[in-house]
Amino acid sequence: MSDTQRPTIYIDADACPVKAEAEQVATRHNCPLILVTNGGIRPSQNPLVRLVIVDLGADNADKYIADSVSQDDIVVTNDIPLAARVIDKGAYALRHNGSLFTGDNIGLQLANRDLMADMRASNPFLIEQNRGGKKSFSASDRSQFLNQLEMILSQKKHIK
C-alpha cells in the first residue's frame, strides 16, 4: 500500500450482518469497499462500493477474496480458512462481531474447526445435542465491529 493509497475493504458478503456499517466507515475514510457474493445483494449507489458476483459453488467468494487481497487490506469474514489465507498475505481479517483473526490465534481456530468437523462426521447426533445453539448477533457485536474497523483504519492513517 503506497502513501496515497487507502486499504481496500473486502466483505465476504453472503450472510454478513455488517455491510451497511462497513460502508459507512469506508466512506468516512474514503476507502474502496468490495462486496463479494454469489448473488442476492443489491448494488450500492456509493461510488466507493463495488459489487462482485462470483459463480455459485463452494468457496468461490473466498477464492476471489484470497486471490485479490493485498497487504494491509481488510477482509470481513467469519470463514476461518479464508482468514488464514488473508493473514498469510499480510492483510487484516475481521469477524462480523469485531474480533480480529491474528497470526497468534488463527492456528488454534483452524484446529478447533477441523476437530469439530471430525466430531460431526463421526457422530452428528452427539454434536447437535451438545451444541447449545449459536449466540445471536447483538448490538454490542455491531458496536465492537465498528470500533475495530475504525481503529484499524485510523492506525493506517497515522502510520503514513
Structural notes for this entry:
- By secondary structure, the chain is of the alpha/beta class.
- 46% of the residues lie in helices and 14% in strands.
- It has a 6-stranded mixed β-sheet with strand order 3-2-1-4-5-6, with helices on both faces.
- Helix 3 (80-88) runs antiparallel to helix 4.
- The chain is globular.
- The N and C termini lie close together (10 Å).
- The model has no long low-confidence stretch (mean pLDDT 85).
Number of helices: 6
What structural class is derived from the secondary structure elements?
Answer: alpha/beta
Taken together, the total number of domains comes to: 1
Tell me the β content: 5-15%
What can be said about this structure in brief?
By secondary structure, the protein is α/β, with parallel strands linked by helices.
